[in-house]
Each structure stands twice: as C-alpha cells, then as structure tokens.
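FAQ

Q: What does a record look like?
A: Structure on top, sequence underneath. For example:
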C-alpha cells in the first residue's frame, strides 16, 4: 500500500473542483466537517490520491449530504454519517485494505438504494456508476463517471429521478434520519403491491441490514 504522503497531492488537488461544483449546485448540498485523523486513515485505506475528486472528498470531508440528506456521498465519516468509504466497503467489495475492489459503494440514499462504482464485476464499463435500485433490485447503469455522478447529485432533477419513490412530506423525515439508517418499506418497493409508496408502511433500519436484505432478495429472485 502506498504511504499517505504519496496520496496527498498538494500541487494539483481535486478539492477546488469539488468546491466549485458545490457552490454552483442547484440542489441543497451539505459538506460534513472532517476529522483529520479519520481523513488520514480513510485516505490511506482507500488508496486513491487527493488529485481525484473521490480522494479529495475522502480527505476533505466527513461526507456530503444532498437534498436534505436523501443522498449520502461517503467521505471519511462524521457524526451525521458515521461511515467512511473504505470501512463501509470492507467485507462487501473487498476483504483486506489495499485490494483492488471489483466494485465500490460510493453513496446511498434514504430508501435503500446504493450507488456503485464499477471495478469490473458489473460490466465492461470500468469506472462508471451503477444504481442498485430498491424498486427492482437491479444494477442499473447510469453511464456516468464519479465526477459526473457528483454533478448528477448536485444539479439533476432528483424529483424526476426518484419519481414514484418519494412520499408526501418526505423532507422532514429524511432530514432527521441517521446517516447509518434507511427507510425500509412494506410491502417491499420491488413488489407489485409496493408500488404506491404513500400506502406502504415504513420504518428506519440500519443500512447494513438493508444492504444484506437487498442482496439476499436478489438471490431468492434468481437475479444473481
């Protein structure tokens, strides 16, 4: 594994690019404060340089919340989003730090959807982002890079993207949701009975539990 000093790019950082994107964002964006020790640890475990937007976000933020916390972009961890990008991926996309992951969980949303950077396991489009969607449990290719994903979060019409998956007055509930939890719906969003989200019951559960449920449901449905 490369030492931390090699990962911190002081002459050509990607952070100013991210800052400019945040300043011009159409959607509500909250940059979570960073703890330097956590940032150093997370960057070292991730093994990407701060020249890249991903490395810059890991090193300079505790994470980023978009649209009242509906989307959570992973950084180095914060009390509002107490998961770092590398720690959240360990045991899912890789076993030991330093391994090249076949995919990388980079962000998630309040309804149990996961944004994934393809490292080879999802298709031949390396470096492109997929959405592991809760309403059909498929890995949907978005055909965008990580940087384009940031632009998608900051400027895209999220009401349109999440059409039919936002319930009445969702903003207050989502803004109060712990960053380690998501809303779990019953009937499940991927069932025929669960398509009207305003009729479903919902409760907050741990994101770890929801991720494991999604994977298990895929197996049961023969989608693996």
């Amino acid at each position: 594994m490369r030492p931390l000093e090699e990962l911190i790019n002081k002459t050509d950082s990607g952070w100013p690019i991210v800052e400019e994107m945040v300043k011009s964002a159409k959607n509500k964006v909250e940059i979570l404060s960073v703890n330097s020790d956590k940032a150093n640890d997370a960057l070292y475990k991730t093994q990407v340089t701060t020249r890249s937007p991903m490395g810059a976000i890991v090193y300079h933020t505790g994470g980023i919340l978009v649209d009242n916390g509906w989307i959570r972009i992973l950084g180095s961890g914060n009390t509002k989003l107490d998961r770092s990008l590398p720690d959240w991926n360990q045991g899912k996309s890789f076993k030991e730090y330093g391994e090249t992951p076949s995919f990388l969980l980079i962000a998630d949303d309040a309804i149990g959807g996961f944004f994934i950077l393809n490292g080879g396991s999802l298709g031949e489009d390396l470096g492109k982002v997929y959405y592991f969607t809760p309403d059909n449990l498929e890995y949907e290719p978005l055909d965008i890079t990580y940087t384009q994903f940031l632009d998608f979060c900051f400027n895209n019409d999220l009401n349109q993207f999440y059409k039919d998956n936002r319930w009445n007055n969702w903003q207050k509930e989502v803004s109060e949701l712990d960053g380690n939890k998501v809303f779990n719906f019953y009937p499940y969003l991927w069932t025929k009975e669960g398509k009207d989200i305003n009729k479903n019951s919902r409760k907050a559960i741990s994101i770890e539990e929801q991720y494991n449920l999604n994977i298990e449901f895929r197996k049961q449905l023969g989608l693996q």
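Q: Is there anything notable about this one?
A: DSSP finds nine helices and nine strands in the chain.
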